[in-house]
Request: fold
Amino acid sequence: MPERCQWAAGEPLLAAYHDAEWGVPSRDDRHLFELLSLEGAQAGLSWLTILRKRAGYRRAFAGFDPLRVARFTAPRVDRLCGDPGIVRHRGKIESVVENARALLEVAAAHGSFAAYVWSFVGGRPRQNRWRIPGDVPAQDPVATALSRDLKRRGFRFVGPTTCYAFMQAVGLFNDHQVGCFRHREVSSLGR
Reply:
């Protein structure tokens, strides 16, 4: 059994996400939009809850196609508030639609949402070397800067802690613990 980051041990769905996706550098705008949306939905909940609802989110939000989501209307949001396949929190649902619109503006200004997000780390993943779970911070100055700028651009549910988790998830930070089998694998990606 390979050694994993402690948060992914013991639960098969978390382990599968950890082993295949978490921390892998992504430069795909749709994937970035999906993870930013899911991290926002997770606020106040467990990541396992969100992973269990991920298929429901993909269905409800048109596969996280920002062009389609940006056109969602108030009646569509009302219907989503009754969808048991997602977290039925009106503010979180509305934020996905508003964030899709803001993302399209950012992508138009920067060439892509990925180019904008990756500019916060100079285009290369930051390689952290955390030894134990307690070493990993809940936020950091780069995530705080991203949070501030996203909010200035009209994004919602993008506080510093959410942005830090997003940056970990999409590989801007390699936050696999050094003893985790994925730390070395992920560190070779995205250079």
In short: The radius of gyration is 16 Å. The mean pLDDT is 96. DSSP finds eleven helices and two strands in the chain. Residues 6-187 form a domain with the Endonuclease III; domain 1 fold (CATH 1.10.340.30).
